[in-house]
């Protein structure tokens, strides 16, 4: 990487640097995900098998549904709480693995910005000392985000239902549309202020890192929000393209679920690299601002 990579970055430069680092350091980044996901996928397979999921071809695969009789289709439609519980329980190992993956990839980005080589195992080892603060920060962020979204959706749904009961259907529909658009932008901007909590927790040894992220994203919220939206759409397209046929032919089988989860994490590499770049860019800008404030104070 050239020395210009250390300068404050614009919207386009952050996107460009994201893909340059992924291309130049793809091997260690991929191996980080691969090494961490081996035990995670094994544990997921055990949970899914115990809770009744089939190994290769799920009951809801296209070939089974196509050849099923009406009686069999009714059977497929039956609610299976144990199998559904197993599916949600199998997501837990990914939750515990995500902070380690994001932290190790952040170390790769730090090495890339310095023009230094990076080895997957070494990056994982560097992340381990901060694993519990990273996990705790992730749990706290999830609780806060869920509480905000749940409370606002509940209040909005109650208001729309009240208007519908009072026969104010047009107002209820307009209000629902306004809340959807406003919620997307409002949630996006709010959570963007906290989006750098993992790199901040990792490199600055603060926990949970939400306050530090809030300060780092000051005056850059719209830029980071736009980057996040673009990369999320791109990741979703990649996930959809790679999961379309396996989802049709494998269904919710064990292999189908493992493939979906692995592809989702591989695609999330884009976001993990971008988060680290945004963190270093924001830190660089804030350091420059802090120095300028000191100079201004000294001159005064």
From TrEMBL:
Record keywords: Membrane, Transmembrane, Transmembrane helix
Segments crossing the lipid bilayer: 29-50, 85-109, 130-163, 169-190, 225-250, 262-280
Entry annotated with the keyword Zinc-finger: no
PANTHER family cross-referenced by the UniProt entry: EXPRESSED PROTEIN-RELATED, OS08G0107100 PROTEIN-RELATED
Name this protein carries in UniProt: Glycerophosphoryl diester phosphodiesterase membrane domain-containing protein
Gene source species: Gracilibacillus halotolerans
Lineage: Bacteria, Bacillati, Bacillota, Bacilli, Bacillales
């Amino acid at each position: 990487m050239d020395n210009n990579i250390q300068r404050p970055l614009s919207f386009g430069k952050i996107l460009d640097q994201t893909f340059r680092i992924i291309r130049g350091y793809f091997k260690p980044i991929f191996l980080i995900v691969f090494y961490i996901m081996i035990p995670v996928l094994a544990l997921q397979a055990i949970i899914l098998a115990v809770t009744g999921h089939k190994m290769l071809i799920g009951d809801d695969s296209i070939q089974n549904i196509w050849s099923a009789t009406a009686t069999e289709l009714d059977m497929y439609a039956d609610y299976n709480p144990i199998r559904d519980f197993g599916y949600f329980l199998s997501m837990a190992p990914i939750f515990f693995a995500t902070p380690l993956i994001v932290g190790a990839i952040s170390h790769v980005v730090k090495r890339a910005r310095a023009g230094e080589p990076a080895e997957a195992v070494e990056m994982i080892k560097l992340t381990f000392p901060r694993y519990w603060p990273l996990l705790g920060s992730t749990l706290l962020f999830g609780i806060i985000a869920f509480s905000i979204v749940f409370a606002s959706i509940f209040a909005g749904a109650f208001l729309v239902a009240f208007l519908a009961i009072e026969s104010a259907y047009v107002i209820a529909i307009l209000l629902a549309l306004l809340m959807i658009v406003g919620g997307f932008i409002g949630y996006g901007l709010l959570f963007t202020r906290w989006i750098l909590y993992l790199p901040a927790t990792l490199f600055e040894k603060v926990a949970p890192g939400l306050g530090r992220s809030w300060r780092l994203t000051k005056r850059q919220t719209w830029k980071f929000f736009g980057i996040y939206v673009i990369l999320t759409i791109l990741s979703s397209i990649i996930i959809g393209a790679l999961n379309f046929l396996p989802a049709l032919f494998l269904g919710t089988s064990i292999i189908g679920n493992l493939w979906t989860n692995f592809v989702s994490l591989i695609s999330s590499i884009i976001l993990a690299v971008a988060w680290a770049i945004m963190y270093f860019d924001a830190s660089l800008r804030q350091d420059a601002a802090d120095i300028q404030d000191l100079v201004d104070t000294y001159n005064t």
